[in-house]
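Predict the 3D structure for this chain.
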Amino acid sequence: MRNKDARRAGGWFVIGSVAACVMAVCPGGQAQAVSADESSKAAGVATALLSPDDTGLREDLAWLIDRRVLSLPLSTWPLPAALLAPALAAAGERSWPAVDADALGRVERALARQTAPVSAGLDVNSARHPALDGNPAAAGAADATLSVRTHGERWSARLQMNVHAHSLSSSGQQGSLSGSYVAVALRSTLLSFGAVDRWWGPGRYTSPILSNAARPFPALTLRRARDDAPQPNWLRWIGPWGYEFSVGQLRHYEPARTRTLGLRLYTRPLPGLEVGLSRHIEWGGRGLPDGLQALRDALLGNSNIDDPERREREDPSNELAGFDLRLSHVDSGDRAWVGHVQLIGEDEANKLPSRFITTAGLQLKHPWRSGRLEWSVEGTDTVRRRLLGLLDGGRRQAAYTHGAYTDGYYHQGLPIGAHFGGGGRIFTGGLSWVPDCRQTCRRYRMTAFTGKVSERELQPINASFGETGDVHGLSARMESQARGFDWYLGLSVQRYRAGPRPDAGLQFGIELPLQR
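Done. Predicted structure below.
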């Protein structure tokens, strides 16, 4: 958002914010955290946080949810193991077709992998290509990690030490603790503190409000420990629901000491339908109002500096707010059809979000031979009010910029939202082939994309795609879970004449458990 026309983003969302906070602190015996006795899978790992970087896990969960094998939220990450473990236990009591049983087995292995006591990893990205294909890669030439995890019955912790080589990040850091956290189960709430990757929305390749494109920043997060439906009959129509509330602080950001507030609500009122509301705020910072009144103004959306009585004051916040939905249906031919859309407003009109940016997509999933095929198409537009060409976009203003928050909606030069940053449009198509693990525990992906970035003007705050230009590319990737460790090998091609990076490069990664 630009300073001269920043608005109250999502005034209508205040009611939902207050309701969520009330629900979070009210006694909720119906929403207890998973205990060690409920499931052997949940013992000791109920409070573990499962990362959105594991695209194989997200893909397997989506397959199982779309085919009604599991009932879980899919659009709010990291995902607590407290939600996943009991669902796996319930699914294990039934007999499923081979393709679904294979996906369940892959999810169980991913759960074991993400909660292993000690593991080491290496990711190489020889051309330093930013991830535009939905597959996480080193945000630079290479990343090396060492993770140590421990847990009790109602808590868990992970210390992850990272070394970065030729990072795309503008901070120049060669080491970080990204991925580290401590989580504690407090009755109906999961409390966590750390710097972990997050993802809000149903998008397959990106999210316009919160994605894993940037290095994570430290945040204190509250989340509902279980997402079961309300007990009163008159509220059962809401269906399973949950919330996430966070307070964080950006690092290596201008203005310094800028903080963040985040709130997401989601519900699944019908089988195959998930609806989410999101609001993310940057507020405070050096030289800007950061007292209780500024916090109140940020929460209430009182950031309309067009008011003559407030014109001399600095804008108290930079906000985005909007909604998303994901709908799936299984036809008579055993094919799952999925559609999703996410609309995020950077402005306000009549107390509603306006000047939207968007992500929308379609998927087709079906068994094939001794495995499954998944076809995906998705478009993301971060030019305000253009909506993938449905509207003209007016002056074609780029999202993620702001007059007072000069580093915009970026963290260390990488976008907090859509992976290519503001002021662009990317269309992506992909095919995933997942053969049965009885033959080989591998996964194959092909992805192609095309679009334009930083369309209106140069954006120096965007370290990945700050130069105006076309972007075209494709990637091919093979992943394997064989022989007790995970690895992937891929080829990435990105044609971006305005950028300094090579057109083609190899991507490789390995994760090895050092203690089981």
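The chain has five helices and 25 strands.
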